[in-house]
Amino acid sequence: MTERRALRRPVDWWRVPAGALSGVLAGFAALAVAELVSAAVRPEAGPVVAVGGAAIDRTPAPVKDWAIQQFGTDDKLVLQSGILAALALLAIVLGLLALRHRLLGTAGVLLFGVIGGVAATGRPDSTGLTDALPSVAGAVVGAALLYWLAGRLALQPVRTAPTPETAPEASPEGAPETAPEPLRETASAPAAPDRRPEWDRRGFIIAATAAAAASAGAGALGRSLNAAGSQDVIASRNQITLPAPASKANPVPKGAQLRMPGISSFMTSNKDFYRVDTALVVPKVNADTWSLRIHGKGVARPTTVTFDDLLRRELIERDITLTCVSNEVGGPYVGTARWIGVRLADLLAECGVEPPSKGGPADQLVARSVDGMTIGSPVDDVMDGRDAMLALGMNGQPLPFTHGFPVRMLVPGLFGYVSACKWIKDIELTTFDDYDPYWVKRDWARKAPIKTQSRIDTPKPFGRPKAGTVMVAGVAWAQHRGIDKVEVRVDDGPWQQADLAAEDTRDTWRQWSFPWKATTGGHTLTVRATDRTGEVQTEKRTRTIPDGASGWHSVVVTVD
């Protein structure tokens, strides 16, 4: 029994983590090469972006809305991190599979390249089959690397050197050779132990190190080239000087911004302005080559305008509050900025467009973005005299890239998903019966005017203010209708009217405050607003889908 145990050698478990590492290195190489090739195609064609975009397009609306509520503007980072984690896990599985089935493991890598290529060419903004090149090229390199590394992990037979007991004796010089004696088993001379096959550890370490270094270099070069490709676009934005608007916005009234801690700033800075869209890679569009095509039903004179054409037109400057339809009651996805742009109604009128209220055949304006997004707006709302615009500037600067540079669309009073197309490149006049834009296909409403809403900014939920006079304050909005009244209720008591700050315009939110004589204990504070049409903010709670959340905002505090 003891001799049999001595003959057994333990399994070399180091091959298992080495196999997993092979898969990870193959995946890393595939992504690095894809990044490099995407620099020659376009950054949006990279496999992570393409698969991520496809995942966004196929995600049910409630799940998307949940992601926005949970992760906010970091939802895209979370998605990309999740994709990379899933790819790493799959790479490990394929690396382990290649230990036993070398060809099957490499075939798995190629399969994911095909999936990435299909995802890239199937995106709405795809430029053709060339978008598949980054995924396919990366997969080929990754598969070849996995096949090579798996070969280094293959077990090779080891020749055992002859021992003195087994080596034949040399015959004396000149003596005739004699036949060897038959082997006989003896207890005192056991057979030499058989050595199991081994894998090339040194060769694997060298190969893995070289592969990691080459992949890192390819990835770094790809990122550098993609960044360099954006420099011309960044330069084009930096060189823009916005002309003085012909129709300037009035100064914000002094009393519009309440001076109390905790309340939102009346004007939202560019860096703090919310961003909710589906673009995993922010489009970098060169203003020098940008153009907008206007065409479709009822367009008597189709036209194409450039960025310089818009700069030469009469510009307007307006303070407008934007609201995202994904904003929950009391949520953060609302902000006010000073926008500079061209009246959209004037541009449409020059093309011969008439709203349906005046006999025009088109009741929907479909705006298309360079990233494939489609947004549908009612033509009547765009042309009813409100300050719908093609915006070129935000808070005195050219639009930031994240907010639609070089041109985006705005329609006061409508939720963003039916009005605020960023990176716009095309406007088509059509009908709601003939075409469903991106979000409508995903069960959102065709028309979505912003609902009358209010929010308590201070005190914060679960705050612990001191007994005595506590200033309750916040904001209310009902764009294009304006806020007429805000009321606050303490616990189940009567509604009490709050003090309204000065109004900028009916297209902006309005701050309010209420001096509350707080008593010790737990309390619930609730707010509601009434707009200029007399509509009182509804108590009924609804989800954001299909046309925006509704209900009263409340906070619970404990007074010490």
Give a quick set of tags describing it.
560 residues; alpha+beta; five-stranded antiparallel β-sheet; 11 helices; 18 strands; 20% strand; disordered N terminus
Element pattern in H and E: HHHHHHHHEEHEEHEEHEEEEEEEEEEEE
In what order do the strands lie side by side in the largest sheet? 2-1-10-5-6
Low-confidence stretches: 1-11, 170-192
Q: Biggest sheet: strands, sense, closure? A: 5 strands, mixed
Q: DSSP helix count? A: 11
The structure class reads alpha+beta
Q: What is the overall pLDDT average?
A: 89
Strand content: 15-25%
Number of strands: 18
Radius of gyration equals 34 Å
Helix percentage:
25-40%
